[in-house]
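Deadline looming. Please check this record:
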Amino acid sequence: MPDFSTIDFAAILPFIAIGFAAQVIDGALGMAFGLINSTLLVSMLGMPPALASASVHAVETFTTAASGVSHIYHRNVDWRLFRRLVIPGVIGGVLGAYVLSNVDAAVAKPFVMAYLAAIGLFLLYRAWRGALSVQSPKIVAPLGLVGGFLDAAGGGGWGPVVTSNLLVQGSAPRTTIGTVNTSEFFLTATVSITFFTQMGLAAFTLATLGLLIGGLVAAPLGGVLAKRVPARPLMAMVGTLLTLTSAYTIWQALR
C-alpha cells in the first residue's frame, strides 16, 4: 500500500483525467469504466489482471454509489428490473473474483469481446433503423449472473454485457442505463470485498487514487446526460462504444 503522505499529484493527474472521462462515459451510457481503466492498467502499466480488477472495483465502489444517487434523483431507475438484476449479479461477481484470484481466465476474453462487438453492431442497426419499440426484458437473472462473473473475472463487463443485452431485448435506453449503473454499486462492493479477502490491501495504489478522484468528480453527470439524450442517439452511442472497445480488446488479446 503506497504512502499517501508523500503523493506527487502531478504523477496522478493523468489517472484523474482518465477516471473522469471513463466515468462520464459510463454514467451516460451504462458501460466502459471498468473496461477503459482495466485496459490502461494492464496494457500500459503492466499490472497483473487480478490486481487491476481489484483496483478498478475498489474505485467503482465509490463511483457507482455517486452515479446511482444521480440516476435515482433523475428518475432513471426501473426498480422492478433493479431487483431482478442485483442478487444474480452479486453471486456472479463473487464467483468471478474468486476465479480471477486463483485461475487465469484470460483465455475466454477474446470470445466474449467478439460477442459484445456483434451486439454493438446490432444496436447500431437498431438505432439506424428507426423507431424503438419498448418491451419488458424476459432474460434478466441469468444475464445478471453472467455479467457479474465477467465483470469480476475480466476487470470490466457488467455494463457492456447487461446494458447491451437488455437493450437488445427492447428495454428503454434511459431506464436501462440508470438501473444497470445503480445496481452496479452492490456488485462492485461485493467484488471488492472478495478481492480483499484473497489479496489483502494490494489494490490501493496511486493509480487507484487518481481514478477515484476523477471518477467521483464525474459521477453526478451521468444521470443528467442519460435523462436528456434522446433514445435513438443514446442507443447509437452505446453501440458505437461497445463495438470499438470490444474490437480494441480483441486486437490486444490476439496480437
Q: What stands out?
A: The mean pLDDT is 78. DSSP finds eleven helices and no strands in the chain. Residues 12-254 form one domain. The two ends are 33 Å apart (CA to CA).
